[in-house]
Design brief:
single chain; about 150 residues; alpha+beta; Sufe protein. Chain: A; 6 helices; binds FE2/S2 (inorganic) cluster
């Protein structure tokens, strides 16, 4: 990121977001897609921002979880955190991840950005459902769009 843009971005976040959120927004974990993912979903939030999640599942455990978003710093932090929370857990455990878990791991978000955590948790659940559907009909995988 250009230094001036980075400075403006961080200054914009300071005072509004806590250090954990700023860290995940500036150094997001698990960014990008997984080629031939076992599960995928892309959702548009109420604000119009998009979040996508890819899953790689081995022996019913989330081996890799990655994300991409065109949204705000909070949605980057939520995508980063929800994929961290899902990684290394079983599919059943990952299904239990809710927006409140993302918020608590990030130690909170401002009121006007709570929906970013909803978007992250919802996108994960739908990616898990996609994994379940795909594992019932593995022959469909080569035809899937991700
Ligand atoms: S997801 Fe839209 S403002 Fe964060």
């Amino acid at each position: 990121m250009d230094e001036q843009v980075e400075k403006k971005y961080v200054l914009n976040m300071l005072g509004k977001y806590n250090d954990i959120v700023i860290d995940h927004a500036r150094n997001p974990r698990n960014v990008g897609n997984i080629p031939e993912a076992d599960g995928f979903n892309q959702e548009e939030g109420e604000c119009g921002d998009t979040l996508a999640i890819w899953l790689s599942v081995k022996n019913n455990r989330i081996d890799k979880a990655t994300f991409w978003t065109d949204g705000c710093g909070a949605s980057i932090a939520c995508g980063s955190m929800v994929t961290e929370l899902a990684k290394n857990h079983t599919v059943e455990e990952a299904f239990k991840i809710e927006a409140k878990d993302v918020l608590s791991a990030l130690e909170g978000l401002p009121e006007d950005h709570l929906h970013c955590a909803d978007l992250a948790a919802h996108t994960l659940k739908e990616a898990l459902k996609d994994y379940q559907e795909m594992s019932k009909a593995p022959w469909k995988k080569p035809y899937s769009s991700h």
